[in-house]
Structure formats: structure tokens, C-alpha cells
Design a protein that fits this description.
8 strands; five-stranded antiparallel beta sheet
Chain lengths: 139, 139, 139
């Protein structure tokens, strides 16, 4: 069995945003030389997500609006977590809806995807450098 | 290390529905001959889910009603994604709540499940042929 | 390839609660002797979750309040599942928001975590003994 590990650094300019990281994960797959296995891609931060969905800008605006309805940022005082001096309780909740990680099949040296599947980093407390972990095991 | 891959085809007659696919995944496990490892089961479409919950019809009606409350289908104009000519923005959101994939332990040639765990395909934009991927790695 | 399996038993005194199980998972990693691979940690019950987030008590109260807003327990009659004699339909829904499982990279004999990542068991129908499965594969 072979294994591969890489941290991908991300820095989004706004508090919230979505970034297609499929090219970075594909580069990891190539670098690993692994042909058959599983690829884990996870946020290393608990106010961010990695998820698979559509690379369509209107949908991303729908996600933003919808997550704000489900777990509004404001007022910060609505969350007990923010009594600690933080202002990002909503980000911890939004990340639960969108998920921490994806596991993708690796088949014949490629991400084994349906037609429209793309991997996204979802940022809910940005404007600083954060990390995504790519771990691959297989042969 | 051994690996196994199969696509399971599904065609649900309504826009939304849930299908217990545990028998199909168990058949994959048997066919793989793998005794110890991990089983990844994921929707290959971004308007569908694979999840583990209870095989109880009333609960599935509760899921349907609840997901419609969290991310209503109508009016289609409420979502920017639908300005592209699509009408399935709600399906992309519902799938985030229910999840894209499950990873199940494979122990002594069997899915390593608690008493009530069953694997479901959740369709949110159906009435056409769609695929679930089963990928198994182990020994 | 090596594999390891352990069931971790949990018994929370209230209907709902969160328990940091990172120490138990770390003990499994040590016991397994596996250095590189993937760690699957999943609830074996469909009214409970395993998830990764922050070990901060205020945030856990925010999760409790938020999940009650998204999928209220009461009145029990609001859910068709509860017509079967159960009273835990809300627990099945809450678990979908929080997730069934996490997959964690195992690197140099350690859980490969960001600074604040901790593994939690989320109970939504407690006051009885329940199980979490830890499955590790790697080398």
C-alpha cells in the first residue's frame, strides 16, 4: 500500500466564499502515482467545508443565501460561542450543513467522478490563510 | 491491496424518493471477495444523496416534508441557479443536508453495521437514469 | 495492508448531548500500530452522529438550540415516524445535519488534524448504551 499527503493552502478575500479546488486535488493524484484507492479531502479548520457540488455561480449565491437563512451570522450575540470573544459561531454551524470532508474513489489514476462533480472549499470565516488536507491511500 | 468498482444504475419514477440500496452494496461486497477494508458508496450526481438511516416509510415521509421546509422546490424563481434554465436548485441544497456519500467498514466480508443501519439512495431530481458508485479497497 | 476494528461504548445521561471521543480514537490508533492510512469513526446508531468541530461548551449549546429549531423534538405528533410508537423522529433528522461518520487521515501514527479539530459523539436519543465503530486500514 502506498500513501500520499499534502496540505493545500487557501486564502479567500471575503468572510465567506467558495473555491473550486478540483485542479489542486487532481495535481495531488498525479503526484502521488497511486492508481487505485481512496482520496480524502478535508478542511483542517472547523469553520470551513470541503464538499462536492456544481461549479455554477448562481448556485453558489443560492448556497450563500440559504446558509444565512439556516444559520445567520448576525446578530453575533445570538450565539453563546461568541461570548468567548469569537464572532464566528455561525461559521461552525454552516460547516456542519456543508460537511467537513469528501472521500473520492481513485480509479485508473483519476478521480472517479460523475459528469458534474467538482470539489469545493467552502469558507465561512475567511480573510486569512487556511489549509485543506489531501490524503491518498492505495496502490 | 485489492480494489473493486461498480456503478449501480437507478431510475426513480418521481422527482423525489428514497431507495434502500443495501442489497446492491452487499452484492458488490460479495463479488469483490475483499474481507477487510473500506466501502465507499457515493452518488455520482449532484442532485442526489447516499446516506444511512432507518428503513421506515413514515420517516421517509418526514424527510420529504422536512427537506421541503428547509429548501423548498417552489417557486423555482427563488433560486438564481434556476435562471440558467434549470429547475433543480432545491435538489442541490437538499443533497447537502443528506450528504453525498457514506464510508462503511468492511469486516469479515460483511458491511460492519449497527442493528438498524441501511444504505439509501436519496433522489431529489429524478425520472431519469442515474448512477451510484461503489468502490471497495482492502484485502 | 493492516486493519483494526474496535467498538467504543457510550451512555449519555440525557436525551441529547455531545461527548469528545478524541482520546478514545487516539487510543485505537496507538493500539492498531498502523502508521499511515485512514481512520473511519461512525455512529452505529441512526439517532446519533460522529462529527468534527470545536470543544467549546457555548458552541455545543448553540448546536443544541439550532438543531431544535431545524428539527424540533416536540410535539412528537408532528412526525409520521412517531406513529410507529417511537418518539425519536427528530433524532433521525438531527443526525442527518450533523452527519454519521468522519474519515480522518492517519499520518506518522497520529490523527492528522488541524489545530482545533476534535471528534465528537452527538447523541439525540440517549439514556442507553450505544456504540461507535472505529475502523482503521493502512500500514
Amino acid at each position: 500500500m502506498k500513501s500520499y499527503r499534502k496540505e493545500v493552502w487557501i486564502n479567500l478575500p471575503a468572510r465567506r466564499g467558495f473555491l473550486n479546488i478540483t485542479p489542486q486535488v487532481e495535481a495531488c493524484v498525479r503526484e502521488s502515482g497511486i492508481q487505485e484507492g481512496l482520496v480524502l479531502v478535508n478542511a483542517m479548520h472547523i469553520t470551513a467545508s470541503v464538499f462536492i457540488n456544481d461549479d455554477e455561480h448562481g448556485l453558489h449565491r443560492d448556497f450563500e443565501k440559504w446558509l444565512e437563512e439556516l444559520a445567520p451570522e448576525q446578530p453575533h450575540s445570538r450565539y453563546q460561542h461568541n461570548l468567548t470573544g469569537e464572532d464566528n459561531a455561525d461559521a461552525h454551524l454552516k460547516r456542519q450543513v456543508m460537511g467537513r470532508e469528501v472521500v473520492v474513489a481513485l480509479t485508473q489514476s483519476r478521480l472517479d467522478f460523475g459528469t458534474w462533480e467538482q470539489i469545493f472549499y467552502g469558507e465561512f470565516d475567511g480573510q486569512r490563510r487556511k489549509r485543506v488536507l489531501v490524503k491518498i491511500i492505495g496502490e
